[in-house]
Amino acid sequence: MFSFAVDVLAGRARAGRLLTPHGAVDTPAFMPVGTAGAVKAVTPRDLHEVGAQIVLANTYHLMLRPGDELVAELGGLHGFTGWRGPWLTDSGGYQVMSLAKLRTLDEEGVTFRSHLDGTEYVLTPERSMQVQMNLGADIVMAFDECPMLPAPRDVVAAAAARTTRWAERSRRAHTRRDQWLFGIVQGGVDAELRERSARELVAQDFPGYAVGGLAVGEAKPDTMRVVAQMDRLLPEDRPRYLMGVGTPADLVEAVARGIDLFDCVLPTRNARNGQLFTRHGRLSIRNARYRRDPRPPDPGCSCPTCTTASRAYLRHLHLAGEMTAATLMTVHNLFFYLDTLRNMRQSIVLGRFEEFRGEMLRALSAAADGVDS
Amino acid sequence: MFSFAVDVLAGRARAGRLLTPHGAVDTPAFMPVGTAGAVKAVTPRDLHEVGAQIVLANTYHLMLRPGDELVAELGGLHGFTGWRGPWLTDSGGYQVMSLAKLRTLDEEGVTFRSHLDGTEYVLTPERSMQVQMNLGADIVMAFDECPMLPAPRDVVAAAAARTTRWAERSRRAHTRRDQWLFGIVQGGVDAELRERSARELVAQDFPGYAVGGLAVGEAKPDTMRVVAQMDRLLPEDRPRYLMGVGTPADLVEAVARGIDLFDCVLPTRNARNGQLFTRHGRLSIRNARYRRDPRPPDPGCSCPTCTTASRAYLRHLHLAGEMTAATLMTVHNLFFYLDTLRNMRQSIVLGRFEEFRGEMLRALSAAADGVDS
Hints:
Chain A has 14 helices and 16 strands. By secondary structure, chain A is of the alpha/beta class. In chain A, the strands form 4 sheets. In chain A, strands 4-14-13-12-11-10-6-5 form an 8-stranded parallel sheet. The first copy, chain A, has a 3-stranded antiparallel sheet with strand order 1-2-3. The interface between A and B is large, with 39 and 39 residues.
């Protein structure tokens, strides 16, 4: 049902293959975010077309609406949504802290009021596992405590220690054999706390490990320092998932430091806001310079959008408030991310990852203040 | 470049074939409305997937934004939008009356202020032809005067007479040989005025004729009475286009009265509002009865949405405000309309149109106050 193997190494970068009950995932892989059971502005058919392999859904949103039992009744995420490839759900641990109103946090769990309608809920490791078992994703996450940064060291330390205890409770409560449960390492940007958290999680022998608690307000050099540290501490034969990251540059830097899986709202959210990713940096389609521009978003891109739509057309539709713009730009940004990772994986397989990394970063910085070629 | 032929007759219903520089259209055909150069919430690829043959764009909207010259510069509608099949543009005559602010109408044309930003524009037959030549659709419409109904007979008569004079000016100003210019018959619901308008337009020898000025507030029986009258007065060897109509029942009733082409915002607009068309009538997806309904919108439908999404899922996404819902429901409604017309055409070819008409209307009325099966 499940397996993971690293096929090729290039330095610390890994080309791997993850098998799940709903299909294989070549790593490193990027997971589009399908918060409420859909990736915004695109359909499962679009996801297939851009080469998505695995999609993330948010436990917090789905337990509130439409409810995890309803999703279970309608076939789990696979049957309910029509994306029948692999799914991963987060545990709700991060979003209950960032989105819910009136939260109280204690050793038992988090009591909160829904941001939708104020209904009171309790989310504990046991309840999170129950929700995720109902949602039926292939990979589920341990319920963790993720503090926003910056935070005092004692807060970060306490959260990391609680995350370890909650990981153990998650493991005991999680009983579906057709789901893999990953543990999440916390500890902020403190090397000692990170080491302790990693060792404690590894001792619990999860089939995969996430680096949580980053991209939450810390400085970028700290992010990559922690990822490099995790690379040395997490088992090499298990997938490493860097949660909530990142830009294209972040992706290659994290792959260079041993990461296999990513999720981030950046490509999708930015698309809806008219910001397109290209190999030479980002462009904001509203800019008047694109009004008559007949070129596709990225002239080097072979996605469905770049082969049919000009910057001028996308700009027109975006300014006109047309949903079609959001779809076309989301398709491009997702393809850009996914194709970047496909190419990155190939460079690892061919033994030229460092060249790829250098070329990619040089191309990105060639137009650091907005793209134009 | 262009031709039209009626292949099979069934009573007054016609199965025909229209050839344009950008492809063939089997009639009767329904044109999805791509107001500002995109059909809302779907992409050209979706349009191909549901079997759209020809798409309508609105001159009024496009001349205001992004401007007809810009569209021309970027390849006309075909190149600009990525829909490279046939396009039809309306003349702006209807929408300048229904949408613009501070309009003054005289024999020359219409002076108005844009609903977007208040800029003053003038739309005359000559300007409308210039805009439509820039937009580059395959079929363009004469610039007409379309009064809202009800209106006093003298207003309707004056508008019809002016429409005849403006049709002549449109013909003289229209110089692109790779576009067919259709004339539009007016006259409200008055039989005498309609007859006069039809004879005057037919005398100008257009390659196709539209019945304008209906579905603008008149009683439904009057609509079909006028269509039947037009059937007797318009040439049989030229396409007849009923503008702005209608419901599925309207379509079959109009085909029974000799109509070949339709456009209407109903399937697309209603989709975005959560109303789905099925062979047993419409359903409103917000309704609590669909909360756990595992069935597709129409269990008899083979569209991409019905083969992958349940009512429960669409309801969830719609209530969550997800764009994906608008896309999935628009795909279904468009497929429903287009497939209904494909089946209707086939029934004409097979000599069983009246049976088809009867079955279709019976199925629709079987659940007149909301569908449920």
